[in-house]
Amino acid sequence: MTLATFNTLDKETAKQYLFACCGSDKWASAMMSHFPFASEKQLVDLSASIWYDDCGETDWRESFTHHPKIGDVKSLTEKFAGKEQAGVAVAKQETIQNLAKANTDYEAKNGFIFIVCATGKSADEMLQLLLDRLKNTPEEELHIAMGEQQKISIIRFKKLLTDGDFSFLKVSQITTHVLDTAVGLPGKNISIRLQAKRNNVWQTIAQGITNADGRIPDLLPQEKNLKPDTYKMVFDTGSYYATQNLKTFYPEVEILFNTFDETHYHVPLLVNPFGYSTYRGS
User: Going from the N-terminus, what domains does the chain have, and what CATH number goes with each?
Assistant: First the structure.
């Protein structure tokens, strides 16, 4: 479907399609107030501004209820097998059971299920991320999950408008890359938290795990720009070296950095068990 075709739909049908992308009635209704859409970029930009600026906790939580639980085999098979959560669909039974248990613990702690943009992530990666995010406060998780939902909405826009032009989409405004200089290889499976100060306290606003290339290309939703401010990346280097049975002088590495505008910021980490360095990359 092209955007031009979508714009010819009756409003009720168009709203149902949009609702399926996000799961929030307030968001879908606000989006429809701009229907028909001038371009795919307007669609994405509006989705972000409405989601972040006009919607609130009630709307975000409503959206979360329209997802299957990660590790719920029956739900994944019926609704999402081979789609957004394909990594779970082919996972070992033990991993799925661990995902189900961790998700139950997560829901009991936070009051909503674990939300993650699962595209491209294996079940093992999601399990590690879920266990890491269980350490966050409910307030942190609400905002992380809200950001993950925006990533999912963009993916669903692209699946809805299969003939649409989404070439304008960029990578996350904030990216990172970890290189283990002791062995000259990427630092993979490292948990990284992006934090901002709220009420003078550092809070996690996005979280991810480095891939096989040592990168996290989707830390923030595409087209989401942070306001110019001071931010912090926290790298869980202790766990990374523990899996290799190595001691490290740095159980965590914290990098504070400033953003000045809406351009891309790449924050790499060069690390070994007894030293590290960083710089602004490109």
Answer: 174-278 (2.60.40.180)
